[in-house]
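dumping this here before i forget
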Amino acid sequence: MADADDNRVLFNGSPNNIEAGWNRSYERFHLFHSWSKPENGLWAADEHTDLQKSYRSQLLVSVVLCLLATLAAACTDLIPVPVSEALDVAVRIPTANLREGPGPSHPVASQVSQGTLLKVQGRNSGGDWIQVVHEGQTFWIHADHTDLATERLAGLPVKAIPTPLPDPAPATPTPVSVALTVTGTVVNVRAGPGLDFPVRTQVRQGDQLLPQGLNAAGDWVQVSDPTGGTELLWIYAPLTDLEAHHRAVLPAVAAPALPDTPTPEPTPTVPVAQDVPCPLVWSDEFEEDGLPDSAKWWFDQRPNRWYSDALTYWTKRREANARIEDGRLIIEAHKEDYGGREFTVARLTSKQAWTYGWYEISARLPEGRGVKSAIWMVSNSNPYGSWPGSGEIDIMEFVGYKPGIIHATVHTEAYNHRIGNHQVKRLQIPDASSEFHLYGMEWTESAIKIHVDDTHYYTFENERLQNSSADQRHWPFDHPFHFILTISVGGNWAGTEGVDPDIWPQRMELDYMRVYACKP
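structure:
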């Protein structure tokens, strides 16, 4: 306590006790230099030298600095982490909507597939939507549909909404970020909530769907199209895990009107072949010149990271490497320095995915030593883990140093080229590089059968139907797969006999691709 009449500070106790207290904290630092006699049971320290005042000032500064350091350490986790200018995120669900603004009331402008890389620009004020750049355009995507870490989200700058909300705003339900899992073995997905609505596609046990709402009775769930389309479809609730995760958070949504009895009309697309007992559910006829249809395809550049020592650079939206011209899709490899590599190529991945049905592709292949082309399919959601656990189907593979020979195979965890026990079949097609041929696949619950023109030459059977000990390691082909179209240069297989420097450019041409779906 301070004496009211002079500049001395009074303390209870003795100088030794006081000094001992300061010694514990400051290693025998003496706050006061001299002490006066006791007054009323109190000891007084005289403050009459500049040195003593200096000690007090130093002590005050030390205490303040310690407090500031403590506060700074405590607040470190509260300071937002600034976003990197090159921050990329990957889509983590099978198909995600890209919208014109942050929220389900804004129109869907595009869609992206699982694994697509997006450049992050910022977030909305609520922090649940992020602004991204895809194919040169700015969109918004729900943060839960990407692999963006929570701590990075807080550091993103808040962006203004680029477009006003429609007036009145459509009553689109807010999607639930947790996926709905199919529990039935094979389940129809319909155009509306009831058996009177037509079947649009099918899903299998373990497939994951993005729920949007419930019908009034609560027995049907509205979901995003599992094949990647924009139509909202319906699945019977008892054949999903609805009760475990979703019923309390899904909004009620209006059901579409029952369709009238259809009047037969000519199909405006390609007529279905008479020997194919399935309706046409998807096709690309490659009719409009320019880049491939962005609603159906995306350019996959991930191999640039996977294969750092490759000869080729996989480009994005570059017509020299992938374009539609005169009614055909051309995927072309060029010998040129680009991205630090010797060749440029393109890898196209379909935005939609399918399961059982009939697939056909009309194609003409490249030629020459060192080139490879492939038409293949991989899992859209990897329910059994990364390659080869969730499977791969090679409808057609061709290497230029073996002209006129086509290869077909599949890869699973139990059968793949890494362990050397996968089954490969070959077929002689002498004019594969000069003429178009039809490469087809019949995929059912019991087998995968691959054809060229009218010749069936490869079969991979479902062991799970015959062997009780077999599981998804032997047959993972029970969920949607998407197309991949590639042309590449060199590598462990195509480059076995080197690369001819004088044959470039080389191209794979596709006249059309069609998918017919039906019940197993």
